[in-house]
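for the writeup, i need someone to sanity check this before i put it in the appendix. the sequnce is what the collaborator sent (i think, or maybe the updated version? ugh). structure was predicted straight from it, no edits. if anything looks off just tell me and ill rerun, i have time this weekend
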Amino acid sequence: MPDDAPSPHLFSPSATGLAVLLGAAGGTHFARPRVYEPLIPRSLGNPRAWVLASGVAELACAVALAFPPTRRAGGLASAALFVAVFPGNVQMALDARPFAANRRRSAITWARLPLQAPLIAWALAVANGSVRPIR
């Protein structure tokens, strides 16, 4: 195998980190689905089904990111998923009352909105192989 050819056994800390993040997020969709249900517009029907489906999508992206042969597809799918869930994150922030009893939760929902852009960039960097693997 030439020196510049990718090895199927490359460990990428960046891809692994993103996989862990998505895996944890996907897991919370099953452990605490009620947290996410208010984000689903009623016009879409049963919110629980959408929450569980998005959890499955996050877990699928995590698995795809974990393996070099599917890492590019996993990165692209992750970026698309981050774009797709952004409106729900905005809705969560709007629904958080700034002067409610849980000010910390309100602050967190607003603070995470600008983090969506770096998450998308991170996923695209993994998809494009812009991150340095460890051989």
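The two ends are 14 Å apart (CA to CA). Residues 5 and 56 are 32 Å apart (CA to CA).
thx in advance!!
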